[in-house]
Design goal:
- The chain has 200 residues and is mostly helical.
- Helices cover 62% and strands 0% of the residues.
- The protein is globular, with a radius of gyration of 17 Å.
- It starts with 9 loop residues before the first helix and ends in a 6-residue tail after the last helix.
- 36% of the residues are buried.
């Protein structure tokens, strides 16, 4: 039995975010990027992790986590683009998805809709920044081919990533207790999604 406090622990949330992002980066580089999927496109596990963390903890966490995860994705091999592109895209996506966390009580489909919208917006924003920076690989022909596949793969992978983050986050929040952070959402709301209706 895990002994938890009356409110979410900031240290616990920070530790959770760190573990999730590091795990997502490792899996992205060592597994996802090596998958021989059609179209030479792979699911963006780091983006999915940012979206899930934003939905659990709110817009501020989504913003900060997105920036840190994006900056790490910018510099981790095989990075071959201008540093800062992923940091900008992920922090914006994290912030917007964090705002959507307020709808989680009423709409259980929100996490998966957020993933689809986040994947679409993230791919388009990344392509747009590439065009502005003169990246020759960022053109509408390539984007129109990549976007549908990117969104499809992200949506297929999203249940596993979102489920794992929601399950892990329950260890850092007390069931049913409101958070002192107005941008965070109690994990108890996600019990139905994580397949468990009892206490810890």
């Amino acid at each position: 039995m895990l002994n938890v406090s009356d409110s979410p622990s900031p240290a616990g949330r920070n530790f959770l975010a760190l573990v999730v992002i590091v795990a997502a980066l490792i899996l992205q580089v060592s597994v996802a990027n090596r998958l021989p999927l059609p179209g030479a496109v792979t699911p963006d596990l780091v983006l999915l992790a940012v979206v899930a963390l934003a939905l659990v903890s709110g817009s501020l966490t989504g913003l900060v986590t997105g920036f840190c995860a994006g900056l790490a994705a910018d510099i981790i091999p095989p990075a071959d683009h201008t540093i800062g592109r992923y940091a900008l895209v992920y922090c914006l996506i994290g912030y917007v998805c964090g705002i959507a966390s307020a709808e989680m009580d009423r709409q259980t489909v929100v996490p998966f809709a957020a993933v689809a919208v986040g994947a679409l917006a993230g791919t388009m924003l990344y392509a747009a920044t590439g065009m502005m920076l003169g990246d020759p690989r960022a053109n509408w022909t390539v984007v129109s081919r990549i976007v549908p596949l990117q969104v499809l793969y992200d949506v297929i992978a999203s249940p596993f990533v979102v489920w794992a983050v929601l399950r892990a986050s329950r260890r850092f929040e007390r069931d049913g207790r409101p958070s002192r952070d107005r941008n965070s959402v109690p994990t108890a709301r996600y019990r139905a999604m994580s397949g468990r209706s009892g206490g810890l």
